[in-house]
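Bit of a strange request maybe. I'm writing a small parser for structure token strings and I need a real example to test against, not something I typed by hand. Could someone generate the tokens for this chain?
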Amino acid sequence: MKSLIVTLLGLLSCAPSCLAVNPIIQTLFTADPAPMVYNDKVYLYTTHDEDGSTWFTMKDWRVYSSDDMVNWTDHGSPLSLDDFSWASKDAWAAQCIERNGKFYFYICAHHTELNRMAIGVAVSDSPTGPFVPPFDEPLVAAHWGDIDPTVFIDDDGQAYLYWGNPHLWYVKLNEDMISYDRELGVVQVPLTQEGFHTREEVTEERPSAYEEGPWLYKREELYYMLYPAGGVPEHLAYSYGPSATGPWQYGGVIMEVIEEGGAFTNHPGLIEYKGNAYLFYHNGALPGGGGFNRSVCVEPFEFNADGSIPLIEPTREGVVEAVAWLNPYRRVEAETIAWTGGVETERDAQVGMVVTDIDDGDFIRVRSVDLGEGPAQFTASIAAAESGGSIEIRLDSRDGTLIGTCSLEAGNSPDDWVMQSCDVAPITGVHDLYFVFEKVSQKQVRFDFWKFSKQG
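Reply from user aminoacidic:
Good idea to test on real output. This should exercise your parser:
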């Protein structure tokens, strides 16, 4: 992945007026976005396409967070196939939801004994995990095509779990969120052409445009069911209804098939955050990307006056504006990134997630940083195997104004985390920051966190 990402270096040599860039995660391939708003922060759960895949080769799920919609903090993998005794492969689309201080992560994976996909659940006290399955069996294993769960809690407290390809099913979850109403059982949704439109080649198995990947959402008095549609390659569409169980009426296309830089699949996730609506989706736009190496993107949009969803254009440059400024005078994790040229992330046994695989010329871009009246000093937590490298701190572009250079010194061992500091020019206002690594070689430097100190 690293050798591919470095080819994107030139894309980010732009002024501070540049907006966020798609895809929003560049350190690995991600797909099937499932955003969740909790405690005034967006948590983004994704699947993870393994590098060089020629099938949907996926072994774990990932989680990121943001409170400004332009910088995303990598929290690593909160859950993997290894956590499910019954699963052997195919860590496909999932979604997380909070209820009564607990977080419930609904996943799908290949059931070893049944030799087909099944729906599982895991629970955590934290939105970033780790998540633990409450029992050693799936929550649902009823059909072929038990994939892509979406979970929703209605205003009256009733929770619903939808899923399926090529059919659409749901259950009513019990209040414990790890069991469902057995008396009602699994309900199959009629995929009528009135409810879910039509496709070019209608079959008994696929009578409408609905394909897979449902996403249930409510806004005001309308319920929305978003989904990939139309066959392969997929576009995104939606239906709407007066309740969480319909009846559904087709609403229209949300996003056309992505021709340039697309993947033959797509997967919607919709949230409203700080007064703005956002559609998350995936494409194949990173170098080396494609149908089995996908990347998560996001677009802002506005609902039409009648509540309908407009046609949303996928962008490569990204059009998301920051909804908050980043405060550099507190600890900022190094893996909080708007864009990167070259680096990757990994979990360190001592300190958690860190930036790694850093080579000479690699950089990290952090967007919309409020320098206020100006910093005096920059400090970073670094583990360096050898001395001699440096971090250049530049404004607004990869080759922008240099405001400081932090020399990197080795500790007593490559695993020693050392606080390293340098003076910086007292630049004021809001800027993008670029941390550019010079005279470092891969595996020699790891980066944990950074912060500025104010003047005086």
